[in-house]
Amino acid sequence: MVNIEINGKALSVPEGSTILSAAQGAGIPIPHLCYLKGINEIAACRICVVELEGTQRLIPACNTQVEEGMVIKTNSPRVRSARRTNLRLILSEHNSTCTTCIRSGNCALQTLSHDLNIHYQPYRLQPEKSRVDLDAPVVREASKCIKCMRCVQICDKVQGMHIWDVAGTGSRTTVDVSFNRLLKNTDCTFCGQCVTHCPTGALTIRDDSNKVLRALADPEITTVIQVAPAVRVAWAEAFSLSPKFATAGRMVAALRRMGFDYIFDTNFTADLTIMEEGSEFLERYTHRGKYRWPMFTSCCPGWVRFVKSQFPSYTECLSTAKSPQQMFGAIAKSYFAEKKGIDPHKMFVVSIMPCSAKKSECELPTMKDACGDPDVDAVLTTREMVRLLRSDCIVPTDLPEEPFDSPLGSGTGAAVIFGASGGVMDAALRSAYYLATSKNPKPDAFSAVRGDNPWKEASFTIPGAGTVRVAVVSSLSSTRALMEALEDGTVDYDFVEVMACPGGCAGGGGQPIHDGVEMAAERGELLWELDAKSKIRFSHENPDIKTLYSEYLKEPLGKKSHHLLHTDHAAWSVPTAKENT
Amino acid sequence: MSRLDIKTPSQAQAVVDQLYRGMERRIAASPPGLCPIDMALNFLNLCHAQTCGKCVPCRIGLGQLSNMLQAVLDDEADLRTIHRIETTAQAIVDTADCAIGINAAQLVLMGLKGFRDDYEEHILRHRCLGGLKNPVPCVALCPAGVDIPGYIALINAGRYDDAVKLIRKDNPFPTACAYICEHPCEARCRRNMVDDPLNIRGLKRYAVDHAGDVPQPSCAPATGKTVAVVGGGPGGLSAAYYLSLMGHKVTVFEKQKLLGGMLRYGIPSYRFPREKLDTEIASILSLGIEVHTEVDVGTQPSLDDLRKQFDCLYLSVGAHTDKKTGISGEDSNGVISAVEMLRRIGDGELPDFTGMNVVVIGGGNVAMDVTRSAIRLGAKKVSCVYRRRQADMTAQQEEVEGAIAEGAEVLTLEAPLKIEANEDGHVVALWTKPQIIGEVDAMGRPRPNDAAVEFKRIPADVVIVAIGQGIETHGFEQSGVKIQRGGTVLANASTQLPDVEGVFAGGDCVTGPATVIRAIAAGKVAAANIDEYLGFNHEIVADVQIPTPDLSDLRPRGRINTSERDASERKGDFQCIECGFTDEEAQKESARCLRCDHFGYGIFKGGRVEKW
């Protein structure tokens, strides 16, 4: 332990602590901006400066370690003045058009400026010019970038993709796509982690809400909306409501008030995914020699882009099952359209996703299987949904709980956990066990794949089939480590679940943003609770799924399934080379 | 009003003079990779501030050039702007009245030629080709990329063994470099901005002198691959060292009796004691490297023989042949080449120059080495003859000053004309043509021209020719190795030879005579690429924790230089000239390090390369 004094308070703190963490622990917050714990501790913004007795200059609190006997003042007149000066300098290069900014009300810079009582700006405003490129789902507006470098660090350290880099030198130093490329020409997975860790509105996900509003305004069009599992445990955060109150039922009520014709649940097609992918796994597992191993899940489009660009030879190991979002679109515009007598060309399928990569997934040339149009017409993130509700003045506290529509609105406990890392694996194993043995396992038999660890391993024995060695991984840096271990032969699995975002979809790039706070684990917990409380916890027991098979698809991996629910991952390409374009 | 005043600078002028010195130091510390147009713009603005204001081209034109460069950087220009910059600058060159405007516009024109692609990239794609890839200046300028802030911090913490381990990650010759490295790392040290560059080499010397016997790391499991290294100098042994660590079986073939290359056969022991060299080589060989000395690869065995026997070859034969002056009488008795003399000294055969007049021809480091060796070999008088000025000598200035202090005469602006011999064919004098310094050549060095004065006769019993070295490559050409016009081996930046499968080359034989650290760097690069070529990806790491930096003290303080033994004492022996730092000096000097690996960009990107 190290003894220090902060603002006259004597403290004993663990060796190796930073001044920032020591002060925070003692209830003395030090304002900071670029800092992101464990990821970006580069002391670039100089907002967290403090006065240390015995040194001539002010020092950054975020990356200076405590030393015995330090006497620190966090709000001395010198600190106060320097901190405000630095913040004004940052603001002089920031396009502070807060009234029309997506991040207004949830912007670390705005909050800090407000908190530090900044009312006027003595410096000439000179924000960098923006050249906004809407070709990719991730959009950068340079004039709002404060060069905190968090995006670069997240992409380097957490996702290991090195898409963002510092560009230019001297006073014109900025952030741009690495190797002077355009984002659309890169191997970016569009995971959106840079966006959820951006303190300002410099990085955003392309807003597609106008497309949806146009469809809602067209009386000829039937609007069908699906909501992904992880959305229901996060949307409440944006309204500062408890998730216990802001249930999926209230979300359904809110969407119904917006005027969508059918409000369905992606959980339904999550169950369907399990039927297809679980059967596919059993087919591969019982014909081992015919396939390359392991089999990978394919529901995360960030991961699919990743494997195709980073480890292309493993593309053949991806399950051919489409993601729940795309299965939904294909079923909505075929089975459901037929059932209701709706012209699928006049149906507009919207997804609400915790994800930014889903926007690029629905645009893939291979995702037009039901009627030739895109199976999913528009993808909105959780944040876009919240913005739409706000703009319609829908107040969730005034709403009752309402059920999803039928028949694509039902989902089991096994489906809702798709939103948490380990959930797809858990759900798949529950049904694979049943498919192999005709008996249900205990629903919590596979709980070893749950939890926060980014790379989890387990083995389960399915009587009659054998031992299945599985791995669950989330975040692309952990994924790369796993893939390299596979390549080196140091690990060997039968079935691997991969989610690009840390913690899975719960921590997705489309989820509500809380500066400096990681919410994936907390949201994931809520999903596991929803599963535990579900009456049905096995995908194969979803009655609407049973009906879908008996009425329409006939059997998993059957002809119709093959056409509507499976895809050729090799039929489109992702740029791989890191060259100038 | 008095009729005349004594010129006394105003207070403001005195401060501005200080600021000039500050800026000079700052320019010296400028890191590589900055946007060249941004730099050109700011140089131009400085030039513009210097205009006296009388003439139009300079007063207005430089300002308009500045506006146009600014427009290029601010994405407000098109390709016509480049043309406008060019015609404006040319008009200023043609019409300005004095050097202030002419030279400023010339700098702009030079930039337009030198980095036109940067101009175009800014205009067309609004991007800069520049980028701060290696933000720690000393590491960026060390050819081998040694983790300098890391080992300085370890020295400051008293962890000398760890300092040596850390250096060995990138350079297996910490001791050799501690004694004789030309320390390019110091050139742009950020400490320049405060006072003076850190004495990096002096600190390294302290570390190696105070580290005990630091054992080498263990090698990776054997790969079964074999590599032959041709030439056991610093470059070859560096490649051998890393390849052995990677688990490959390395055999070194050396033409001379002993290993070490120019470290033994070029650098005199008064600069680098032989026992230190022997210890360092023994430590490298402890990894299990096989050595065959007195083998002339190229004759017996041929390169093709080796290619058959080994999976891969690294050529690092150095530059050991002498160059001739071509003046008459060069074949007289008593005329010897510096290479020849230093090689004999390396093998322990010391010539006796007692009472003789020795004349050395040349102005490089080798010329200084033989000059100072000749003094130690008893010469009555040693004269070093050079055709340019002392400032133009390629030798390090401290070497020249050291030689002068030991009693050498440096005769500059004397071009060798002929060697006069007596009837026995033995040299008696060197005749020279006195020179006058003239116009600057393309490389920026003023050229000497014949002066209108009498030829000069310099009496000599021995003439030592030290005007450069060549490369012995005749045995290689038959095996398909391409030799360039300067006689050097053609190899690319990854040390690979074009068209000769599995053969790599680096060091002096590729670059021409250069420095030890560049040869070591080539060996390191070769090792990485050979490993890759053999189908592996071994990583070289140092298991050393670097101390967290203290808050840096930016108060200007003097650089501590190492001292030397008295000239009168040291010139009588071949013992080491330089005295290492005292404990106090090492402590104080290491504390001057600004830790660019942590402060500034280093903590964000590129501050530390932990493995390669």
Topology (SSEs and partners):
The complex is a heterodimer of chains A (581) and B (612).
Chain A: E1 2-6, E2 9-13, H1 19-25, E3 49-52, E4 59-60, E5 71-73, H2 77-92, H3 108-115, E6 138-140, H4 150-158, E7 164-167, E8 174-177, H5 193-196, E9 203-205, H6 209-217, E10 222-227, H7 235-238, H8 248-258, E11 262-265, H9 266-286, E12 295-296, H10 301-310, H11 324-340, E13 347-353, H12 357-361, E14 378-381, H13 382-391, H14 413-416, H15 423-437, E15 455-462, E16 466-474, H16 476-488, E17 495-499, H17 520-533, H18 543-553, H19 559-565
Parallel strand pairs in A: 1-5, 10-11, 10-13, 12-17, 13-14, 16-17
Antiparallel strand pairs in A: 1-2, 3-4, 3-5, 6-9, 7-8, 15-16
Helix pairs in contact in A: 9-11, 9-15
Chain B: H1 11-28, H2 36-49, H3 56-73, H4 79-95, H5 99-114, H6 116-125, H7 137-141, H8 148-156, H9 160-168, H10 174-180, H11 200-210, E1 226-230, H12 234-245, E2 249-253, H13 262-265, H14 274-285, E3 290-292, H15 303-309, E4 312-315, E5 321-322, E6 335-337, H16 338-346, E7 357-361, H17 365-376, E8 381-385, H18 397-405, E9 409-411, E10 414-421, E11 427-440, E12 446-450, E13 456-459, E14 462-465, E15 469-470, H19 474-477, E16 503-505, H20 508-511, H21 516-533, E17 563-564, H22 567-570, E18 578-579, H23 583-590
Parallel strand pairs in B: 1-2, 1-4, 2-3, 4-16, 6-14, 7-8, 7-14, 8-9
Antiparallel strand pairs in B: 5-15, 10-11, 11-12, 11-13, 17-18
Number of helices of chain A: 19
Largest interface: A-B, 26 and 20 residues
What are the segments of chain B in which pLDDT stays under 50 over at least 5 consecutive residues? Answer: none
Class by helix and strand content of chain A? alpha/beta
Task: Explain the overall architecture.
The complex is a heterodimer of chains A (581) and B (612). Chain A is an alpha/beta fold. Chain A folds into three domains: 2-91, Ubiquitin-like (UB roll); 93-205, Alpha-Beta Plaits; 209-571, 3-Layer(aba) Sandwich (Rossmann fold). Chain A is 34% helix and 13% strand. In chain A, helix 9 crosses helix 11 and helix 9 (266-286) crosses helix 15 (423-437). Chain A is globular. The termini of chain A are far apart. In chain B, helix 11 crosses helix 23 (583-590). Chain B is of the alpha/beta class. In chain B, the strands form five sheets. Chain B has a five-stranded parallel beta sheet, with helices on both faces. A five-stranded parallel beta sheet of chain B has the order 6-14-7-8-9. The mean pLDDT of chain B is 92. The interface between A and B is medium-sized, with 26 and 20 residues.
